[in-house]
């Protein structure tokens, strides 16, 4: 589904000039329909899905217990 720059700015909670700047830099894929840029919103859904996966991996990593170091010597 294609959205206008204003709709994408609202969706991402960013300003329209920033979205246009990112489009011109090529960081956001967009199509110019003769009057305005339209942006496929699916590219952001994939990005958000990947972010969620990374967050889950980080949470799992934080929950892992710290392994005991075999080189630690009892000094008593």
Automatic annotation (TrEMBL):
Domain Helix-turn-helix: 2-47
GO molecular function: DNA binding
Recorded coiled-coil stretches: none
Pfam assignment, any one: HTH_17
NCBIfam families in the cross-refs: excise (TIGR01764)
Name this polypeptide is given: Helix-turn-helix domain-containing protein
């Amino acid at each position: 589904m294609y959205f206008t720059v204003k709709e994408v700015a609202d969706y991402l909670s960013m300003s329209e000039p920033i979205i246009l700047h990112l489009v011109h830099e090529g960081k956001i894929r967009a199509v110019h329909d003769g009057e305005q840029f339209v942006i496929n919103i699916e590219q952001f859904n994939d990005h958000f899905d990947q972010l969620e996966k990374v967050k889950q991996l980080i949470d799992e990593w934080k929950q892992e217990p710290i392994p005991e170091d075999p080189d630690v010597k009892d000094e008593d």
